[in-house]
Design a protein that fits this description.
Layout (H helix, E strand, L loop, with lengths): L12 H4 L6 H20 L2 H6 L4 H12 L3 H16 L4 H34 L1 H10 L5 H17 L4 H16 L5 H4 L3
Helix pairs in contact: 2-5, 4-5, 6-7, 6-9, 8-9
Length: about 190
């Protein structure tokens, strides 16, 4: 094609040329890599070992965790982001997202159990009756005793030993089969 003629966008020549990426898109990609690098720094060594990381990236993450100086840690973070730009991070991003989803699930379970404990302590036997109707609980009497004892401790201003034991029992029930959200059951 002569150099003075404008290019026709409908020709096959465009298919052979690399697509141009805007500066804004490059910045978004760089920020995404930096964000992924930050998430890697927040993971434990056991979680990092489950991820599909190249040895160089894993070493850089371990070194960054040992750095205490803010500026040096920031430079190491940028270095990790640079290493991530050189690799296809789609599998890594998916694995990190899966770990985050598991953590959100654990957190949601904790909140469900806390809500049920609070409702049981607030409403007493009425709430326990509703819970027993929703779930088949083998030892309902021990739960009833824990609720009563926790309410007595709360009224007397004693340490919440029974409330903690009640929480553990409810968590065991939730682990076996997730409890329904207490707010939906006891909506005003």
């Amino acid at each position: 094609m002569p150099t003075g003629e404008p290019r026709n966008p409908n020709t096959d020549e465009l298919d052979e040329e690399p697509l141009l990426v805007s500066k804004s898109q490059l910045k978004r990609q760089a920020l995404a890599k930096k964000s992924l690098a930050t998430e890697l720094l927040d993971l434990s060594a056991a979680q990092l070992s489950t991820l599909p990381l190249e040895p160089g990236v894993l070493l850089a993450v371990e070194q960054a965790k040992a750095i205490r100086s803010h500026g040096a840690r920031k430079r190491q973070l940028m270095y990790i982001a640079k290493l991530l730009r050189r690799m296809d991070e789609s599998e890594l991003s998916a694995a990190v997202e899966e770990l985050n989803a598991k953590a959100r699930g654990v957190s949601a379970g904790q909140h469900r159990v806390e809500a049920w404990r609070d409702v049981l302590l607030d409403k007493g036997d009425a709430a326990l009756t509703v819970l027993l109707k929703l779930r088949d609980i083998g030892d309902a009497q021990s739960l009833r005793q824990l609720v009563r004892k926790a309410r007595q401790e709360s009224e007397a201003g004693k340490p919440p030993a029974a409330a903690r034991a009640l929480f553990r029992e409810l968590r065991a029930l939730d682990d076996a089969e997730p409890l329904p959200p207490a707010k939906q059951v006891f909506s005003p």
